[in-house]
Amino acid sequence: MAENLAKFCAGCGYPITLMMLNKTLEKLDLQKRAVLGLDIGCALLAWNFLPINTFQTHHGRVAPTMMGFKRARNNSICFALVGDGGAYAIGLQSLIHAAKRDEPITVIVANNTVYGMTGGQTAPTTLCGQVTPTSPKGNIEEPFHGPEMLKGVIKDGAFLARTAVNEPKQLQEFLQKAIETQQAGHFSLVEVLSFCPTNWKTNGVDTINKLNGLKDIFELGIL
Amino acid sequence: MLEKEKQFLTGHEIVIKACLDAEADVMYGYPITPTCEILSGWSNIGKQYLQTEDEIAAGFAVCGAVLAGKKAFTASAGPGHILLQDAFSMAEAMRLPFVMVIGQRGGPSSGTVIYSQQEVTLACYGGNGEGYRLVYSPSNAKELYELTRQAFNDAWHYRFPAVLLTDGYLLKTKSVFNLAEITKMVNIPAHALVPEDKVVHWPNIYTLEEELNEEINETKKDFSAISEEISKAESYKTDGIEYLVIAHGIVGAVAKMAVDELREKNIKVGLFRPITLRPFSKKQLDDLFVKNNIKNVVVVESSFGQLARIVRDELAPEIDATFTYIQKPGLGIEVEEIVEFMKKLKI
């Protein structure tokens, strides 16, 4: 199904999200109309992964780029794939306004609580007490809940949800709903709790346990 | 209704007209003086537009639109121009036909709001790359129109991002705009860079240093290949000169009047006025030194040497020229100042 071999780290959650996205597009027969914009961060590695139009943008800038694309080509199905840092830190201003304007694009946020590509630094989603290279004594802040915050600015018909890479059925269901939302002309965002064993420094069992533990802090479901 | 041949228009209105005539589809922008009237003007003519949350979003929305095959542009100045360089560097890397109109204002920082020539370096070399972008510097209303059209055409034809680099004086001045005097131009059509009928996988970040190096070399080759064709400059009264004034934009127009006055006083002075700052009409400048025995070059600009640095860099190294400067960052320059300066220089 994938075009090229994944260049993601072993055990990364991104390929699961991407494969589910592709499966959903296949099911809806929308691969040809799909356009996948990538933020910079681990998302960039997906540039030749799926058999759909894909390009890289800049860190934090994928949402406005896809907004420009969608407004220029109405019949395209536009995705902005972005990490938690790109979405909720450097790109937050654009994300809020894209949601507020009800831009008909689908933002897929991989939330693994760290900046993966640069070595696991503190992200807006990092848990309180979590140790990272930039929070050596543990993060002193509470994590940021992106979809919950956007809930306050979206218009009727928009779709906000959170799921996890080990909830494939729900992930696919939410992606489909997000696409349908875009087709109906509204903004959609799916946050996907994802794992990063490289930066979490976890083995297989601990990786799954940690991911499941995140679900207590970041509630799954439609908002 | 037939369009009147002669109209009394502001620079802003001329830019809007040029963008319309270039068949631009959409503008993304954020209000900043002195280019607000381009955004508000474009917002009132029934074309697609969006006032974004900042210039960053405006710039990346332009990138998205051109990727999808629409002629898109933005307009900004000073601090907004700085933010636009983020998207503009992506446009440089991906060779996107991104067009931006910059109304230079004083800097650094928020500076002043109407006029300067201090965004030359930013426009030409503002990214973290090599400056492979097209930069046009109009000196009057006619050029403002023609070069805006040219910027769209060259951007889409050669796939380089383009800057129409002007200032608030030219944009806010109302003057007679005569359609009959405009050079006729055929539009280069837009095309989808991300096509609908095949799959494109398009990176702008590279794993291997060699890959990036190869890409930049390719871009350099393409830029050099079109440089002679699209670079433009005006050499004015440059036969038998001893002195050469170099100036661009509206200072170029002022310098032209100064040359006329000095010629009446039998001072052998001419003007070289770059119309494109990138690429630069290198050969045309070098030739002036080959054909004339130029004693002194006077670079006149409303900045501390942003144009002069380009001139010195572009001039063939074997040409031995003496440089003097009139440099007034953030200030307009008048004909009399140049005339007086040249008279003293001659003595």
From TrEMBL, chain A:
SUPFAM superfamilies to which the protein is assigned, alphabetical: Thiamin diphosphate-binding fold (THDP-binding)
UniProt keyword Oxidoreductase, yes or no: yes
Stored InterPro entries: 2-oxoacid:Fd_oxidoreductase, THDP-binding, TPP_enzyme_TPP-bd
Keywords: Oxidoreductase
Residues of the Thiamine pyrophosphate enzyme TPP-binding domain: 49-192
A molecular function (GO) term: thiamine pyrophosphate binding
Residues making up the signal peptide according to the UniProt record: none
GO biological process, one term: cellular respiration
Name assigned to this protein: 2-oxoglutarate synthase
Annotated source species: Candidatus Magasanikbacteria bacterium GW2011_GWC2_34_16
Lineage: Bacteria, Candidatus Magasanikiibacteriota
UniProtKB/TrEMBL annotation, chain B:
Top-rank taxon, per record: Bacteria
CDD domains, sorted: TPP_PYR_PFOR_IOR-alpha_like
GO MF, one annotated term: oxidoreductase activity
Iron among keywords: no
Domain Pyruvate flavodoxin/ferredoxin oxidoreductase pyrimidine binding per the UniProt entry, residue ranges: 18-188
Domain Pyruvate:ferredoxin oxidoreductase core, chain residue ranges per copy: 242-318
Pfam families: PFOR_II (PF17147), POR_N (PF01855)
Cross-referenced InterPro entries: 2-oxoacid_oxidoreductase, PFOR_II, Pyrv_Fd/Flavodoxin_OxRdtase_N, THDP-binding, Transketo_C/PFOR_II
Swiss-Prot/TrEMBL keywords: Oxidoreductase, Pyruvate
Protein name per its UniProtKB record: Pyruvate flavodoxin/ferredoxin oxidoreductase domain protein
Organism field: Candidatus Magasanikbacteria bacterium GW2011_GWC2_34_16
Organism taxonomic ancestry: Bacteria, Candidatus Magasanikiibacteriota
